[in-house]
């Protein structure tokens, strides 16, 4: 190699070592997420990171304040209930999409109609299947009519129904739309390579909506699958915001001067769902309720929560988030940690010598291995597969695994229909396929009277916990770590709002 | 020479066909390709339809021939996961891996050649022992461990170098050191052994006896001859690096071929895995072929014994 | 232990002497460390202070004895599930040692058979086997091993088989060339003239005399096998939890390395020490063989 080549290389190196302007200097924020997004269609890309991006790229008709839980105007300035089935929305005037086209009632009608059609393939049918018709009264007035009285309509309208530009989306098709999304949201999409992309603050974003006006100009998103690498980057300062930080790293990370780390409460519950319907194995020991009860008794959830969950995480005994409407904790059968009882239940069920199951999980390797060890103690050998979130969820939905140590955030909707209703409705998430429970859940979704709904859910919860279809585990506490000069507040709905974040001392 | 070349080429073609067969069988027999194409939320009917549509119901040999035909036309299929063309995915990742491998080999040579020469000049000296110890130690350090330690030291504690990603050249420093230090020992030993041999050769003695300056003897005559076998080993090591980059790329999250391979493996994205194995094997074969030809050109005896 | 001083067992004359080995410092250090690891592996249940699988979530991530907050009774601290790290490291020896020996047993058997057959018979058999060797040499080992494990599913047996089936190439190359040289040696021709069967010649005359270089190959490949297993397990596509493979321990511990660095330094050091020791033995054997020539 000639001297000149070496000199050139050295010069290149010197240039690239010097940090490029970042963070507060150019009002950009670089964040890292763990998994690349298959697309940016909020109805299809329902992973948590996908939902977060949806909230930045698009707007819903109304906004729900993360602290007060009050509904505030967003694309709609007002809304009224016309009858049991009908909500009417008055739309905001003068809103434009990122491509400059004007937002009006047609966009709302087209978007909701398209995704209410099961053929379109919205990932969460619970969010859209209640919609019967959507009608434009005039250019700025829209009516949404449900099939049956649907009490949680506003929950879904504010939570999981972004509005798309009908002309553009129809022009390019939904596949392409997911790759090059255009919305009305506070940030617009700038494509990157397969492992990074950028959100740029949208200059024409309307004022007066619940989201306010974004302060941070550029949001750089990098995909770094490895947790350790993400932590390293945040310590090194190259990444300025991460989440999903293991809770036992929080205190130590927070002790670093350049990093703020904290645990935020969430509405997310973790559970071990069991293959009670025998989808993965038609002779599964887990089809026996006694075996499922034994699994419940075998796991010391209190210790897992105090040692591995941390923060204000707590043990959950119900198949829903305890503060959700309908989530009656009193109705649940509680299984205490009692390995001896577990062993004798297994013996009684004919599995004195134990058996082997396949369990998949994704969020926290230590917790999954702790469960593996507890089950090993009573003779159940667990083949553990740590996958990425999406792959692990698919493995459960497609009935490939015996157990799934997963978790569920209910789309941040404060109603048991989004949790119990999503996992025991006979769909692919439902590993129990219990006809009675399916009926109850369906009935609850259609009942308007609050007392009546509550009673139906109590009944469902009592049946589910008695049959021990799940091991309800614990609430999830989300670990955040970010640059200590960033103004950021975690919210309980696990939807970081970068449009409300800002740089400052 | 022409005969040797032909034989060697025929062998290379045979080998690549064998490897394509192995990867093909692995990806079509061990897993159900129809389920892979159908994706997450497919029903049994969807899968059955795809099986017919993609020809997965045809005899394997028919499928293999259509696969080969496609590959020859540059069509490596589509990723099960993202639906993108595998060739596009790979093309996007090749530069990072190529850069990493080049920088690693440069790092290895920058260390191996001077150290090997110096060690050879004074066999059994302290420097020689140091060089040999370094070689033994270097070969025993697991590179993923070295990578983590380098991240801890230079990335986190000192904050001198970036930790992950492949945006700038600086991002490649730690990975190149990690990968290069694994190739260094073999190269260094070869330089040292070659130099010791050459320095004892008659023509060097003659050159010295003629009173040529030591510099000229060393660099013009000795090193030039000692370095020739190093070139072919470098080619082979370069191939190893392409294969070994999978570990290093995953530690440093470099968006290269190895990282793509690892990601695809964690999700059984067979078309991508198949293509990468084929591609890296092809690179191996070409590099070893080059190394062999080089050796043959340098050393006529090889042509005879082969 | 046959791998430590196997040459001494060979009664025929052409071999490095035991004394030369004893005088070789590197070899002695390497051999001592390898023996120590083998003994640890064999007697793991006796020397481990705790059950390596027993978790205690209340005693997580306790540091080793040289730290002030260390936990009495847990010399090298505990891991992220409160399992005794020393015991896990000791049991990890079992996996590496079993894998190292197992893999070279499989690969040695394949490689030596192929090499000797190719070298002895020559002709089209040699061409066929040489082609096979070239094919194998063109396969990227780590990549293939990962792909196979990803498809078949990771377990100790699968990893052992995959590595064993991949690492035979050097055995074959060396066995072939040495056999080639011996084929025309006087005592082989003599045996042939006396009407000895082919099998007899191959097993009784050839094999014992190509042993020395093959043992050097065995050390190299063993070190290789140990490192590949660790790499596969580190990438999550090898030995599965809760087995205490050193590579897997590194992978499980890396989230905690920032504030509990011993969690990655210790298993890494074990891997390094074992690989280094095996390499030192191999280098020592090679040195002595070369000195003999």
Keywords:
heterotrimer, A: 505 residues, alpha+beta, ten-stranded mixed beta sheet, four-stranded antiparallel beta sheet, B: 306 residues, mainly alpha, 13 helices, 0% strand, disordered C terminus
| Secondary structure tally, helices of chain A | 16
Over the alpha carbons, how many angstroms does the gyration radius of chain A reach?
24 Å
Strand content of chain A: 15-25%
Distance between the termini of chain A: 49 Å
The largest beta-sheet of chain A arranges its strands as 8-9-10-1-11-16-12-15-13-14
Which class do the helix and strand fractions of chain A yield?
alpha+beta
Oligomer: heterotrimer
Which percent range fits the helix content of chain B? over 70%
Total beta strand runs of chain A:
18
Give the chain pair forming the largest contact, with residue counts: B-C, 45 and 42 residues
Give the terminus-to-terminus CA distance of chain B. Answer: 11 Å
**Helix fraction of chain A?**
25-40%
Strand % of chain B is under 5%
- Shape by Cα distribution of chain A: globular
Structure characterization notes:
The complex is a heterotrimer of chains A (505), B (306) and C (293). Chain A is an alpha+beta fold and 505 residues long. Chain A has helices at residues 3-17, 48-57, 105-116, 125-128, 153-159, 166-179, 227-236, 250-254, 289-298, 301-309, 339-348, 365-377, 389-397, 420-423, 435-446, 450-467, and strands spanning 28-33, 62-64, 71-73, 76-81, 86-91, 131-138, 141-146, 187-190, 196-201, 218-223, 241-243, 259-274, 355-361, 380-386, 403-408, 470-483, 486-487, 502-503. Chain A is globular. In chain B, α1 (2-29) runs antiparallel to α12 (270-298), α8 runs antiparallel to α10 (214-252) and α11 (257-266) packs antiparallel against α12 (270-298). Chain B is flat. Chain C has helices at 18-23, 25-42, 44-47, 85-121, 123-137, 141-152, 156-166, 169-183, 186-193, 198-209, 211-234, 246-253, 262-292. Mean pLDDT of chain C is 88; it is low at 1-14. The longest helix of chain C has 37 residues, at 85-121. Chain C is mainly α. Chain C is elongated, with a radius of gyration of 22 Å. Chain B binds chain C through residues 11, 14-16, 18-19, 23, 26-27, 30-31, 136-137, 139-145, 148-149, 152, 156, 239-240, 242-244, 246-247, 250, 261-262, 265-266, 268, 273, 276-277, 280-281, 284-285, 288, and chain C through 26, 131, 134-135, 137-144, 146-148, 150-152, 223, 227, 230-231, 234-237, 247, 250, 254, 257-258, 261, 264-265, 268, 271-272, 275-276, 279-280, 283.
């Amino acid at each position: 190699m000639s001297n000149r080549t070496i000199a050139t290389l050295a010069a290149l190196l010197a240039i690239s070592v010097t940090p490029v302007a970042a963070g507060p200097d150019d009002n950009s924020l670089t964040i890292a997420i763990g998994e690349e997004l298959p697309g940016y269609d909020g109805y299809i890309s329902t992973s948590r990171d996908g939902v977060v991006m949806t909230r930045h790229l698009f707007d819903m008709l109304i906004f729900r304040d993360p602290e007060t839980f009050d509904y505030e105007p967003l694309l709609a300035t007002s809304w009224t209930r016309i009858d049991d089935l009908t909500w009417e929305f008055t739309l905001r005037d003068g809103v434009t999409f990122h491509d400059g086209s004007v937002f009006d009632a047609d966009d709302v009608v087209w978007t909701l109609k398209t995704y209410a059609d099961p053929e379109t393939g919205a990932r969460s049918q619970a969010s859209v299947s209640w919609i019967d018709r959507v009608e434009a009264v005039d250019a700025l007035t829209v009516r949404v009519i449900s099939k049956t009285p649907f009490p949680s309509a506003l929950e879904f309208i504010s939570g999981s129904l972004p509005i798309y530009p009908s002309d553009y989306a129809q022009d390019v098709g939904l596949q392409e739309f997911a790759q090059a999304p255009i919305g009305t949201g506070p940030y617009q999409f700038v494509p990157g390579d397969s492992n990074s992309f950028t959100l740029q603050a949208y200059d024409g974003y309307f004022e007066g909506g619940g989201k306010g006006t974004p302060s941070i100009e550029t949001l750089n998103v990098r995909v770094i699958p490895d947790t350790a690498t993400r932590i390293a980057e945040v310590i090194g300062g190259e990444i300025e915001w991460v989440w999903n930080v293991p809770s036992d790293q929080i205190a130590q990370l927070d002790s670093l001067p350049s990093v703020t780390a904290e645990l935020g409460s969430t509405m997310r519950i973790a559970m071990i769902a069991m293959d009670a319907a025998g989808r993965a194995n038609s002779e599964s020991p887990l089809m026996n309720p006694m075996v499922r009860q034994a699994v419940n008794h075998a796991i010391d959830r209190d210790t897992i929560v105090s040692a591995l969950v941390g923060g204000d995480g707590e043990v959950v005994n119900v198949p829903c988030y305890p503060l959700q409407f309908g989530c009656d904790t009193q109705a649940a059968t509680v299984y205490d940690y009692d390995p001896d009882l577990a062993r004798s239940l297994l013996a009684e069920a004919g599995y004195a010598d134990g058996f082997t199951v396949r369990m998949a999980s994704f969020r926290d390797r230590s917790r999954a291995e702790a469960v593996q060890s507890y089950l090993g103690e009573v003779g159940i050998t667990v083949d553990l597969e740590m996958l990425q979130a999406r792959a692990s969820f698919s493995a459960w939905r497609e009935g490939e695994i015996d157990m799934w140590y997963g978790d569920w955030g209910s789309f941040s909707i404060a109603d048991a229909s989004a949790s119990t209703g999503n996992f025991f409705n006979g769909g692919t998430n439902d590993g129990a396929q219990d006809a009675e429970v399916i009926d109850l859940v369906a009935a609850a979704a259609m009942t308007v009277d609050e007392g009546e709904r509550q009673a139906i859910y109590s009944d469902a919860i009592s049946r589910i916990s008695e049959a021990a279809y799940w091991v309800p585990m614990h609430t999830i506490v989300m670990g955040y770590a970010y640059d200590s000069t960033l103004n950021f507040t975690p919210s309980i709905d696990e939807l970081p709002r970068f449009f409300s974040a800002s740089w400052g001392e | 020479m022409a005969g040797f070349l032909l034989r060697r080429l025929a062998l290379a073609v045979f080998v690549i066909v064998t490897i394509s067969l192995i990867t093909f069988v692995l990806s079509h027999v061990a897993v159900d390709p129809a389920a892979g194409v159908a994706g997450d939320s497919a029903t049994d009917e969807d899968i059955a339809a795809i099986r017919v549509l993609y020809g997965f119901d045809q005899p394997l040999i028919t499928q293999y021939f259509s696969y080969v035909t496609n590959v020859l036309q540059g069509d490596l299929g589509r990723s099960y996961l993202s639906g993108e063309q595998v060739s596009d995915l790979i093309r996007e990742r090749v530069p990072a891996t190529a850069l990493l491998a080049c920088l690693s080999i440069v790092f290895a040579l920058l260390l191996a050649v001077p150290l090997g020469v110096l060690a050879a000049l004074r066999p059994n000296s302290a420097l020689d022992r140091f060089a040999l110890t370094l070689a033994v130690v270097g070969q025993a350090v697991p590179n993923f461990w070295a990578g983590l330690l380098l991240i801890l030291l230079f990335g986190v504690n000192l904050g001198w170098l970036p930790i992950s990603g492949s945006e700038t050249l600086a991002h490649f420093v730690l990975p190149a050191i990690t990968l290069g230090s694994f190739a260094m020992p073999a190269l260094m030993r070869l330089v040292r052994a070659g130099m010791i041999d050459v320095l004892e050769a008659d023509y060097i003695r003659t050159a010295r006896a003629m009173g040529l300056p030591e510099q000229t003897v060393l660099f013009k005559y000795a090193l030039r001859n000692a370095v020739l076998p190093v070139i072919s080993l470098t080619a082979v090591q370069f191939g190893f690096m392409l294969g070994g980059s999978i570990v290093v790329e995953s530690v440093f999250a470099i968006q290269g071929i190895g990282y793509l391979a690892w990601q695809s493996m964690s999700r059984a994205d067979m078309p991508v895995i198949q293509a990468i194995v084929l591609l890296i094997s092809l690179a191996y074969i070409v590099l070893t072929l080059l190394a062999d030809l080089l050796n043959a050109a340098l050393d006529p005896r090889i042509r005879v014994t082969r | 232990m046959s791998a430590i001083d196997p040459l001494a067992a060979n009664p025929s004359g052409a071999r490095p002497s035991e004394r030369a080995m004893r005088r070789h410092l590197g070899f002695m250090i390497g051999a001592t460390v390898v023996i120590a690891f083998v003994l640890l592996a064999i007697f793991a249940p006796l020397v481990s202070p705790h059950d390596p699988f027993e978790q205690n979530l209340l005693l997580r991530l306790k540091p080793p004895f040289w730290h002030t907050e260390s936990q009495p009774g847990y010399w090298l601290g505990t891991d992220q599930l409160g399992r005794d790290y020393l015991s896990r490291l000791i049991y990890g020896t079992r996996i590496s040692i079993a894998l190292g020996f197992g893999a070279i047993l499989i690969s040695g058997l394949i490689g030596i058979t192929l090499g000797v057959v190719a070298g002895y018979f020559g002709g089209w058999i040699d061409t066929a086997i040489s082609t096979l060797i070239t094919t194998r040499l063109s396969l990227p080992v780590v990549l293939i091993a990962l792909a196979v494990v990803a498809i078949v599913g990771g377990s100790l047996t699968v990893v052992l088989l995959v590595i064993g089936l991949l690492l035979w190439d050097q055995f074959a190359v060396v066995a072939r060339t040495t056999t080639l040289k011996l084929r025309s040696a006087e005592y082989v021709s003599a045996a042939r003239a006396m009407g000895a069967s082919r099998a007899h010649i191959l097993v009784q005359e050839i094999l014992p005399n190509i042993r020395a270089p093959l043992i050097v190959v065995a050390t190299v490949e063993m070190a290789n096998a140990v490192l590949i297993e660790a790499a596969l397990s580190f990438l999550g596509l090898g030995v599965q939890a809760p087995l205490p493979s050193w590579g897997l321990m590194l992978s499980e511990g890396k989230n905690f390395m920032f504030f509990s660095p011993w969690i990655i330094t210790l298993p890494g050091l074990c891997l390094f020490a074992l690989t280094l020791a095996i390499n030192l033995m191999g280098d020592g054997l090679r040195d002595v063989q070369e000195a003999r020539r």
